[in-house]
Amino acid sequence: MTSEGAKKAWETRRRALGQTEKRTIGKESTHWGKSRQEQEAICDFIYSKLKKHIHYDLNEYRISSEADLRSSVTFYLRNFIDKLKTKDWRLHTGLWTYPEASFFKNRKKGKKSRVEIDVVVTKIPESFSGASRPIGIELKEHQNIGEDAIVDLKKLVDLKKEKMIKYGFLIYLFRNEKESEIENERLSKEIPKKLEDEIFVITINPYEGMSGRHVEKFNKKWDQSKDLRPEKMTGRKAGINRGASKKTRKKKKSKK
C-alpha cells in the first residue's frame, strides 16, 4: 500500500464519519453507534493531526529520544480523549497483550506468551470484563533508517490478524536526508492490501523544512538533552571545581 493509498482510505473513513454525525444530529437511523464514532474520531486525530503536534514539540526541542516521543504522543492523545467527555476510553503505555499461540509461530525463537505495545487506546465499559476497541501505536526513533521499524510494523499486522487490535499505527521518527514521504512509501509496502485501511504508517523527519543553520542548532539541542553525562554537565563540573577550590583554601589557611 502506498502512502497515497493510505490517505485515500482514511479520507473515505472520514467522510463516512461525517455523514454518520449528520444523521445523528438529524435523529435519523445511524450506521455507527456512539462508541464507533468516538473510535473513528480518535483514529482520525492520530492519523491527520498528531504528526503536526509532534513536529511542534520537535521544533521546541522537547524530543530527543523514543521515550520523549512517547511522552509527546500520550500528552496530546490524553488531551484529545478528555475532550470526548466520556469515562470509558483509557490510554495505556507499555501494555502487555496475550495473543493466541499462532501469533508467535513466525516470530523469534523462544517461549513467549505475551507481547508489549508502546501505546494503546481502549474502551472499557463498566459492563465489560476487559478492554475493547483497542487502537495500538508502536513508536520508533532513529538517527538513521533501520529495519527494526519493519519488525514493529509486522507486529501490528500480526496483532490485527489475531484480532487483538482494531487499528494499528506505526509512528517512525528518523533524522537524516531521506524524505519522510519516501520512507512512508517503503514501509507501507509491508502492509497487506486487505489491512490497508486498518494499519497505518506515520513517518516524521524533523529536518524537513529546516535551513542548514536550523538543522545544526536542532542537532546541538538534541545532543545536549538526550542523556546525562558527567563530562557534559556544566553545572556539576562547576560545583565540583568550587568544592575543590574551597578545600585548597582551607589547606592553605591551616598551614599558616
Could you walk me through the main structural features you see in this protein, from its secondary elements to its overall organization?
- With 256 residues, the protein is α/β, with parallel strands linked by helices.
- It has a single domain (32-212), classed as Trna Endonuclease, Chain: A, domain 1, CATH 3.40.1350.
- Helices cover 49% and strands 17% of the residues.
- The protein is built from eight helices and five strands, in the order ααααβββαβαβαα.
- Strands 1-2-3-4-5 form a five-stranded mixed beta sheet, sandwiched between helices.
- Strand 4, helix 6 and strand 5 form a beta-alpha-beta unit.
- Helix 1 packs antiparallel against helix 2 (34-48).
- The protein is globular.
- The model is unreliable at 19-29 (pLDDT under 50).
Beta-strand share of residues: 15-25%
Q: What's the β-strand tally?
A: 5
Number of domains: 1
Structural class: alpha/beta
Determine and state the CATH class. Alpha Beta
Any low-confidence stretches, pLDDT <50, length ≥5? 19-29
Biggest sheet strand line-up: 1-2-3-4-5
CATH overall fold name: Trna Endonuclease, Chain: A, domain 1
Shape: globular
Label the CATH architecture.
3-Layer(aba) Sandwich
Give the distance, in angstroms, between the N- and C-terminal Cα atoms: 82 Å
Rounded mean pLDDT is 83
From the alpha-carbon coordinates, what is the Rg to the nearest angstrom?
Answer: 24 Å
Helix and strand string, N-terminal first?
HHHHEEEHEHEHH
Individual helix count: 8
